[in-house]
User: Fold this.
Amino acid sequence: MQTNFQTPEEIRQHIWKELGRASRDRHHAWRTPVLATAADNGLVNARTVVLREVDATLGKLVVFTDSRSPKVSEIGKQQTALFVFWSSRLSWQLRARVNISIQTSGPEVDAYWQQVSHSAGAKDYLAQTAPGSACPDPAKTAEASPGIPHFAVLSAQVTELDWLELGRGNHRRARILADRWEWLTP
Assistant:
């Protein structure tokens, strides 16, 4: 589906509109982007995350994770990361370069946990073992331990958008920053 957006501002507005939809619509393709971070060994780790909230005005994306997850340690050492979104409906790929901050306590985290604590996913943050740790009995990973959840909020400040639209014979690509933009060769 080729769009008629001609200016970066039109593209930017539609990108943020779609990101906002994705945070609310479980069926939106952008709901589950790939988040890539720098690993301790110099390689890259990539995993699918769930987009929980979007603030277009502030240029912020929010995801939740287990505070014991390797990505928390990686982000603690290197705050720059990359989200990759793909939508076949839009024929759009979006790469969002971000700076991520980690929050494990405070009023904002408490408010998010209050929402999550009543969902089926709450048990993931109460698991006895950390994500990625050895597990001799897979049935035990579902067991929750009572007490404090291992819940973290990742707030990602978008610094650059790389938008690619695949069209029939005519692809378009743009790099969009806060204060400038440029068309790129697809």
